[in-house]
Amino acid sequence: MSLRTPAQRFLSTLTRSKACCYAVVMLTGILFFSPLASAKITLSPTSLTFGSQTVGTTSAPQTITATNNKGFKVSITSIKVSAGFTQTNICGTQFLANGSCTISISFAPTTTGTITGTLTITDSATNSPQTATLTGTATSGGGQGIDIIQHIVFIIKENRSFDNYFGTFPGANGATSGPISTGSTIPLGHTPDRSRDMGHSWNDALTAINNGLMNQFDLVQFGNIGGDYMSMTQFYQTDIPNYWSYAQTFTLSDATFSSLHGGSFPNHMYTIAATSADAIDNPNEPTHPQFSSWGCDAETGTTVTLQNTSGVQSSIFPCFTNTTLGDLLDGAGISWKSYAPQENTSGYAWNTYDSFNQIRNSSLWAEHVVGWSNFVTDATNGKLPAVSWLVPDTGDSDHPPSSVCAGENWIVQQINAVMQGPDWATTAIFLTWDDFGGFYDNAAPANPDYYGFGPRVPMIIISPYALAKTVDHTEYEFSSVLKFIETRFGLTNLTSRDLDAADMTDAFNFNQTPLPALVLSTRTCPAEGPIVSLGNAKVSFGDVQVGKSATLTRTLSNTGDAALDISSIVTGSPYTQTNTCGSTVQAGASCTFTFTFTPTKDQAQNSKCTIYDNATSDPQIYYLYGTGTSSAEKAAQSAVKRQQQTQSDKDGEDNQMIDDD
After folding, report:
1. pLDDT tens figures, 591-605
2. For the residues 446-455, what does the mean pLDDT come to?
3. CA distance 155 to 271
4. Peptide bond into 455 cis (omega under 30)
5. If DSSP codes are grouped into helix, strand and coil, which group holds residue 212?
6. What's the burial of 143, exposed, middle or buried (CB within 10 Å: 0-12/13-18/19+)?
7. Which helix (H) or strand (E) holds 23?
8. Burial zone of 14 (CB within 10 Å; 0-12 exposed, 13-18 middle, 19+ buried)
């Protein structure tokens, strides 16, 4: 009889001690060790398939996760791959108890043909060695297809129509005049570098499109103030020379439409999920924080409006469970990152993966969603994943009233990093804008379904294999970029939108002599007189007891090179304001607004303070929010929050967009 058998019979009555992974048992002078469990390491997936790869180049990495599901450590002897493949890993010298680690594998062939290899992990687990099959096809470089693209970068900026940026571009379907609601046709004026924000919501878009007549852009919110017809304006080549340089050198699409006739939130959802999940507008936050969060970490009470195809509306918390392209990429072991503004910073509302529960509330968030400032470093060092989304902060987004020149400089810095880095030779960049921003466009959008398309937006395709000096007239939408990614990596579609979308391959010639990098210089932005910063344009009082008053202050600054002349200030009741500005705020000077809320009803009473002046972003608007209450306790709690808000706003960034834009 084995000693193990009687030992096991006596274990229930003996005192035991543990030394790492074994039970130490003493029986009549004999000491031996009994394994508590059999450790096994599992790999997921157990095979990787790479597309065609030119000899002498390296593919984008794919990943395999090794998991130890036992409660003790497993020592690693080696992690190796066959010739023709390379690997890096974060496993170290051991698999931690109940832990996992990631092995990134690239295909780097040195000879042509189909190459089959193996990932081999040798360790102290009972099922060592663990293996995964690796397969790739190596070509000499001739007759290659879409697989030559190893890195795809999808850049989403804000609020510009095609005609606003490229209406005068030679060979494109552009316009320099357009019809307005009166029946007249007027020439498109000149858009200043900084303009006011205009309406581009679901209703604004439907108004502007007017059943395809495209003749009511002057009726969008703030589209025409005092006869300035800001919505009927455009930039010239001299205003945005670097955007034009990209368009003249690579491929400009003049038939890309926003996916939904509406604003930022639903359109950004299309850029990662090919759907807005019936959302039609931006979420509403009850306390109107300075830095919006439109996703799963939004404040309690935040809602987004859904509208079904029968026009019936409902509201839900903006945390969705629809499958995203990130989910598909992750499931296929294909590397990806979303480079976007981080929580409590300007532009965080556009960090769209925040709105999907399976990403935001899992390890995928920390693994794949990083600050946008990491992009240049990764691109410069050749560490771009296979798929990247890149979203700027507010100041660099082109979103009115931000400077378009500053936004263009930001783009140059990002794209220069790609072009000067080692990944340029195998990269495709798709640069677009999320919605029309209230600006005129002449092309009537098609209606593939109830939700869109919305008005046309610019799209520039930048790659060594993009068609050179070409205007592409194929109809695209944001789901088309997802279709390109799905086509490249053999992924299934997400919705009917990406299934039906053109895959954008007709903007490429994968067999052409690769186009060289176009490294551009940033430029000095124009001086345009007074530039207004409102600090935090959202003035939120919370609950205030009916019949009593509360005050909040804001600082208005003129950061321009000329005096700001204030012609009038209009404040809606039950709010009042006093200020130290007078009629003129000199260049470089600041003044203070003090707002007082005296509620008259036991309900929400919102209004605004409109400042008319000589800045190109005229008028400036403070949005005033407050709720009257009969509860002294609620009022006291809000008073504490107002004090905290006042402190945080001292270091806050400017926000002059239509709330919630």
Report:
1. 999 999 999 999 999
2. 97
3. 10
4. no
5. coil
6. exposed
7. strand 22-27
8. exposed
Q: What mean pLDDT value characterizes the chain?
A: 91
pLDDT surpassing 60 at residue 7: no
The alpha helices in 290-403, defined as continuous H runs, are: 325-331, 357-360, 363-368, 374-380
The DSSP-derived string for 430-464 is EEEESS-TT----SPPP-SBTTB--SB--EEEEST
| Helix axis angle, 404-419 to 241-249, nearest 10° | 40
The answer to whether 598 and 622 have CB atoms below 8 angstroms apart is no
Sign of the CA dihedral with 237 first, then 443, 616, and 408 last: negative
Confidence of residue 3 (pLDDT cuts 50, 70, 90): very low
> Rounded to an integer, what distance in angstroms lies between the CA atom of residue 270 and that of residue 630?
43
CA atoms of 477 and 113, how far apart (whole Å):
37
The closest of 423, 360, 364 to 65, measured between CA atoms, is 364
pTM score > 0.85 for this model? no
Tell the residue number behind the tokens 């799905």, with chain if given: 486
Which structure tokens are listed for 160?
């510009």
Residues 337-366 pLDDT 10s: 999 999 999 999 999 999 999 999 999 999
Q: Which two tokens stand for residue 289?
A: 């924080």
Q: Is 2 exposed, middle or buried (0-12, 13-18, 19+ CB in 10 A)?
A: exposed
The Cα 601–Cα 458 span in angstroms is 47
Q: What are 236's two structure tokens?
A: 């010239």
Cα Dmax for the chain = 107
How far CA 70 is from CA of 6, 40, 74, 125, 359, in Å, comes to: 26, 8, 9, 10, 26
Interatomic CA distance for residues 397 and 409, integer angstroms: 10
Residue with tokens 């990269």: 427
The answer to whether the CB of 395 falls within 8 A of the CB of 372 is no
513 CA to centre of own chain: 32
Sort 567 into a burial class: Cβ within 10 Å, 0-12 / 13-18 / 19+: exposed
Q: How confident is the model at residue 647 (pLDDT cuts 50, 70, 90)?
A: low
